[in-house]
Amino acid sequence: MTDEEWLRHAIRLAQRAESQGEVPVGAVLVHDNSLIAEGWNQPIQTNDPTAHAEIVALRKAGQTLNNYRLIDTTLYVTLEPCVMCMGAIAHARVKRLVFGAYDPKRGAVCHALQLSDAPFLNHSVEWTGGILEVDCAELLSDFFKARRNQAKGR
After folding, report:
1. Is 136 annotated as a binding-site member?
2. Band of the pLDDT at 113, cuts 50, 70, 90?
3. Residue 52 annotated as binding?
4. CA-to-CA distance for 133 and 31, rounded, in angstroms?
5. Half-sphere exposure for 36 (CA within 13 Å, toward CB)
6. 6: enclosing H helix or E strand
7. Rg (CA), the chain
8. What is the pTM of this model?
9. How many domains does the chain have?
10. Residues 63-105: pLDDT tens digits?
11. Does position 152 have pLDDT exceeding 90, yes or no?
12. 54 a catalytic residue
C-alpha cells in the first residue's frame, strides 16, 4: 500500500475517535507494508492523558512484537505529533513518520519544536508531512467548530 492508503486508514481511525467524543487523530504502525498496530485518541475515554493515537499504536506494537524497539517501522498519523509522542517515537526507534495535518502551535516535528533529529534524542526519525493534509485538517477543524458551536448552544 502507498503512504496515502495507509494514511486513509489512519483517517478512518480518527473518525472512530471522533465518534467516541475524542479529538479525531488516528495512527497506524506498519512494518514491511504490513499492519503491526493501530490507535486513535482515547484520553477522555480512558482518563489517561498519554492515550494519544500514536502512543496507543506504539504500545500495541510493542506488545505485538514483544519488543519496545520498533526498528524499520513507519508510523502514519493524521496530525503532526506533539512533544510527548515525538519522544516516544524516537525512543521506540521508529524509522519513518508520515503525517497529514501540520500543527503550528504544538507540533514537535517541524513547528513548535523540531524533535525529529534533535541531537539530545537517541534516534533520528525520517519524516514526511502534508500527505492528505486537507482531509486531515478538515477533520480536525470541523470537530473543533462543532465543539465551539455546542458550547455556544447552537
Report:
1. no
2. confident
3. yes
4. 23
5. 28
6. helix 3-19
7. 15
8. 0.94
9. 1
10. 999 999 999 999 999 999 999 999 999 999 999 999 999 999 9
11. no
12. yes
